[in-house]
């Protein structure tokens, strides 16, 4: 019987998988803001704006708080709303409430600032100072403080160096600066850390409750 021999240069797996395109995805996705200014708590967006979503590794590293209860925060010197340098060490000897907020003139930040203003006498009665910190410039802080008659200090952390040094966590995959409040005792040691992006007025309630308890 005659035998038939079949010669081919292709194996079965190579035929099945040859030239099969693999989908590729960009490493960084982006979100396009559709409105000229968002009404979202604490965020200002101009049109068009792309908000890059960082990788999961960078998100994890960005939410590790460096200042925790029982630790002493890094020292800083920043300019206030009048352009004068203010050092954290200036407040040693009394409790101090340091609150980081996303930006001046945003809905949530305005509510929070006005709530601190309305309860300012209670903080003074507790012997505590109040300091607000954001990445806005001194002129922005000055206008914000004058418009809402804020009786406390606002510090300009342009470049967000102090925010990073303190390890203030961000929200929305790093797109929104975090809203976090710290209470330091008279020795400069952190005794309370409170984070709540979407209920800005709760920061006042929680810090006053804590100050009254000690």
TrEMBL record:
Protein location: Plastid, Chloroplast thylakoid lumen
GO cellular component, one term: chloroplast thylakoid membrane
Boundaries of every Thioredoxin domain copy: 67-214
Family in the record: Belongs to the peroxiredoxin family. BCP/PrxQ subfamily.
Entry keyword Iron: no
PANTHER family assigned: AHPC_TSA FAMILY PROTEIN, THIOREDOXIN-DEPENDENT PEROXIDE REDUCTASE
Catalytic activity of the protein: a hydroperoxide + [thioredoxin]-dithiol = an alcohol + [thioredoxin]-disulfide + H2O
GO biological process: cell redox homeostasis; cellular response to oxidative stress
Record-given protein name: Peroxiredoxin Q, chloroplastic
UniProt-listed Pfam families: AhpC-TSA
Organism: Sesamum latifolium
Enzyme class at the top of the EC tree: oxidoreductase
One GO molecular-function entry: thioredoxin peroxidase activity
UniProt keyword list: Antioxidant, Chloroplast, Disulfide bond, Oxidoreductase, Peroxidase, Plastid, Redox-active center, Thylakoid, Transit peptide
Record-listed E.C. numbers: 1.11.1.24
């Amino acid at each position: 019987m005659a035998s038939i021999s079949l010669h081919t240069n292709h194996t079965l797996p190579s035929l099945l998988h040859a030239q099969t395109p693999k989908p590729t995805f960009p490493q960084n996705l982006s979100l396009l803001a559709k409105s000229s200014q968002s009404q979202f708590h604490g965020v200002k967006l101009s049109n068009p704006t792309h908000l890059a979503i960082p990788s999961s590794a960078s998100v994890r590293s960005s939410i590790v708080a460096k200042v925790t209860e029982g630790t002493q925060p890094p020292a800083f010197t920043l300019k206030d709303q009048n352009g004068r340098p203010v050092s954290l060490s200036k407040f040693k000897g009394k409790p101090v409430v340091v609150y980081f907020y996303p930006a001046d003139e945003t809905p949530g930040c305005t509510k929070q600032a006005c709530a601190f203003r309305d309860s300012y006498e209670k903080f003074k009665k507790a012997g505590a100072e109040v300091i607000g910190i954001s990445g806005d410039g001194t002129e922005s802080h000055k206008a914000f403080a004058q418009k809402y008659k804020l009786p406390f200090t606002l510090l300009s952390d342009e470049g967000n160096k102090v925010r990073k040094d303190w390890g203030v966590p961000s929200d929305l995959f790093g797109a929104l600066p975090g809203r976090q409040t710290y209470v330091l005792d008279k020795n400069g040691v952190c005794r309370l850390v409170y984070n709540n992006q979407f209920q800005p007025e709760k920061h006042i309630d929680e810090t006053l409750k804590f100050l009254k308890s000690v």
